[in-house]
């Protein structure tokens, strides 16, 4: 105890010191890019980087990931439709997937729910579920592909997001549509993808009102993106030029994540 | 008598001077080795997130720490592997190295050399020419490498490259193709490294050129 005390420099606030140190430490639960891989990193990519310093490898990987965003945006063809399937191809039961279990999923009362619309739009009025169900409905049977590698075919119907964006007078030259969900999940979608004809504000699954497991009352279904870019339990959308990050994106998943 | 000795010395000196692996082959080979190892170990990390079979790869031998990290490594090394692979194929064809070194591969040659290899009579003394088993393995691994890249592209972009994905029999089948291509590459790697250790001259040639 005495020895530790003697190591502390007088005039240094211990609490602030610990805070600073903690900030420099990687979040061990998720950001473990280098565990077991530091020596392999030495083999490649890291010429000129200090391999022991995991942060420099992480920075480099983050830069390549940004470059990959740009490449994917260039590859993305707004006219290419995701393959569609028939009724018999539907995966039954369609899996529930989240970073929590089903009993922890948000329980939303559709009567109280309203979609908040903000940012670069002409009309910032909120939309009730009843109002959204009045809008023209489209359906699709497409493949949901998870970042983990598994996939499942499902049937979704609802309002075309591009139709809705036109309706609220969104600035379609803006860079992103950013979604916020009842479970505090967030995710940004690039505007060309938001305007893709298959990108949908989903209100129904397999012809029935969207079950709680799949994101009641509204999920954003994007068959040209990995599953985690398909937010559920959506409560707000914002049209914006700012990159606001997202739940998984902030932890290192590639932000574009196109298919 | 003395003239014979001289000419023998000359021949020996000439052989020593002869470059077995030109500089470009060595550079491309080692970049490929590094990129491949990163691709394989990060690929195992990604596999573990949703295994195709009833096993997972030990965490001790995967790269990236978690799925997100594995993906970042995989999609970074992908560029190194792809660019390096294109350089290898372009220069290999342009210089005629592939034709010279890997062609022709005759079934009878492969059978004869396989029989000799099985009885430990297959010689690696002359490193400048490949025997039929080597030709088959090297040509085969180039094709498997191409298959790994194409099946990888088809599961990375199953919407934009959907024709390619369809050629592999759809997204789910393409995942299996990608896995088996990896398994074939790992199998090749094991044999390749064992032989390089058994014939140290070949490793020396791949580092120093001769």
Automatic annotation (TrEMBL), chain A:
<feature type="domain" description="Oxidoreductase molybdopterin-binding">
    <location>
        <begin position="105"/>
        <end position="248"/>
    </location>
</feature>
<dbReference type="Pfam" id="PF00174">
    <property type="entry name" value="Oxidored_molyb"/>
</dbReference>
<dbReference type="InterPro" id="IPR000572">
    <property type="entry name" value="OxRdtase_Mopterin-bd_dom"/>
</dbReference>
<dbReference type="InterPro" id="IPR036374">
    <property type="entry name" value="OxRdtase_Mopterin-bd_sf"/>
</dbReference>
<protein>
    <submittedName>
        <fullName>Twin-arginine translocation pathway signal</fullName>
    </submittedName>
</protein>
<dbReference type="InterPro" id="IPR006311">
    <property type="entry name" value="TAT_signal"/>
</dbReference>
TrEMBL record, chain B:
<dbReference type="InterPro" id="IPR051542">
    <property type="entry name" value="Hydrogenase_cytochrome"/>
</dbReference>
<dbReference type="GO" id="GO:0005886">
    <property type="term" value="C:plasma membrane"/>
</dbReference>
<dbReference type="GO" id="GO:0009055">
    <property type="term" value="F:electron transfer activity"/>
</dbReference>
<keyword id="KW-0408">Iron</keyword>
<dbReference type="InterPro" id="IPR016174">
    <property type="entry name" value="Di-haem_cyt_TM"/>
</dbReference>
<keyword id="KW-0249">Electron transport</keyword>
<dbReference type="GO" id="GO:0020037">
    <property type="term" value="F:heme binding"/>
</dbReference>
<keyword id="KW-1133">Transmembrane helix</keyword>
<dbReference type="Pfam" id="PF01292">
    <property type="entry name" value="Ni_hydr_CYTB"/>
</dbReference>
<keyword id="KW-0349">Heme</keyword>
<feature type="transmembrane region" description="Helical">
    <location>
        <begin position="176"/>
        <end position="200"/>
    </location>
</feature>
<feature type="domain" description="Cytochrome b561 bacterial/Ni-hydrogenase">
    <location>
        <begin position="21"/>
        <end position="207"/>
    </location>
</feature>
<protein>
    <recommendedName>
        <fullName>Cytochrome b561 bacterial/Ni-hydrogenase domain-containing protein</fullName>
    </recommendedName>
</protein>
<dbReference type="InterPro" id="IPR000516">
    <property type="entry name" value="Ni-dep_Hydgase_cyt-B"/>
</dbReference>
<feature type="transmembrane region" description="Helical">
    <location>
        <begin position="136"/>
        <end position="156"/>
    </location>
</feature>
<comment type="similarity">
    <text>Belongs to the HupC/HyaC/HydC family.</text>
</comment>
<keyword id="KW-0812">Transmembrane</keyword>
<keyword id="KW-0479">Metal-binding</keyword>
<feature type="transmembrane region" description="Helical">
    <location>
        <begin position="67"/>
        <end position="91"/>
    </location>
</feature>
<keyword id="KW-0813">Transport</keyword>
<feature type="transmembrane region" description="Helical">
    <location>
        <begin position="27"/>
        <end position="47"/>
    </location>
</feature>
<dbReference type="InterPro" id="IPR011577">
    <property type="entry name" value="Cyt_b561_bac/Ni-Hgenase"/>
</dbReference>
């Amino acid at each position: 105890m005495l020895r530790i005390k003697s190591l502390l420099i007088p005039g240094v606030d211990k609490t602030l010191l610990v805070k600073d140190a903690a900030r420099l430490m990687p979040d061990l639960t998720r950001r473990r890019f280098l565990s077991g891989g530091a020596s392999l990193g030495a083999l490649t990519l890291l010429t000129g980087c200090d391999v022991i310093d995991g942060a420099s490898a992480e920075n480099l990987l983050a830069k390549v990931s940004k470059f990959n965003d740009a490449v994917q945006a260039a590859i993305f063809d707004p006219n290419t439709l995701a393959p569609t399937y028939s009724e018999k191809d539907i995966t039954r039961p369609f899996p529930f997937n989240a970073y929590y279990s089903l009993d922890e999923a948000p329980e939303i009362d559709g009567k109280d729910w309203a979609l908040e619309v903000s940012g670069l739009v002409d009309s910032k009025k909120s939309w009730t579920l009843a109002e959204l169900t009045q809008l023209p409905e489209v359906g699709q049977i497409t493949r949901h592909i998870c970042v983990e590698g598994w996939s499942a075919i499902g049937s979704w119907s609802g309002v075309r997001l591009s139709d809705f964006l036109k309706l609220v007078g969104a600035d379609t030259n803006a860079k992103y549509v950013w979604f916020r969900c009842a479970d505090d999940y967030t995710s940004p979608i690039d505007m060309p993808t938001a305007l893709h004809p298959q990108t949908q504000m989903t209100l129904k699954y397999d012809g029935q009102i969207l079950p709680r497991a799949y994101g009641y009352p509204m999920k954003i279904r994007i068959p040209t993106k990995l599953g985690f870019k398909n937010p559920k339990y959506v409560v707000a959308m914002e049209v914006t030029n700012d990159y606001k990050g997202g739940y998984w994106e902030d932890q290192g998943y590639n932000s574009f994540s196109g298919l | 008598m003395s003239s014979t000795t001289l000419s023998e010395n000359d021949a020996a000196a000439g052989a020593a001077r002869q470059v077995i692996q030109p500089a470009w082959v060595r550079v491309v080979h080692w970049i490929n080795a590094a990129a491949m190892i990163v691709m394989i170990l990060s690929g195992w990390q990604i596999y573990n997130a949703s295994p195709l079979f009833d096993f997972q790869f030990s965490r001790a031998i995967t790269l990236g720490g978690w799925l997100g990290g594995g993906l970042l490594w995989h999609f970074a090394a992908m560029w190194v592997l792809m660019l390096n692979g294109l350089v290898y194929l372009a220069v290999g064809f342009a210089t005629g190295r592939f034709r010279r070194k890997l062609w022709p591969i005759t079934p009878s040659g492969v059978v004869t050399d396989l029989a000799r290899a099985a009885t430990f009579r297959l010689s690696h003394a002359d490193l400048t020419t490949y025997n039929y088993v080597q030709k088959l393995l090297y040509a085969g691994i180039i094709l498997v490498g191409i298959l790994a890249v194409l099946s990888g592209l088809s599961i990375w972009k199953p919407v934009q490259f959907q024709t390619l994905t369809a050629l592999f029999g759809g997204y789910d089948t393409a995942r299996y193709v990608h896995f088996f291509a990896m398994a074939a590459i790992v199998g090749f790697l094991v044999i390749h490294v064992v032989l390089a250790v058994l014939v140290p001259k070949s490793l020396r040639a791949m580092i120093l050129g001769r």
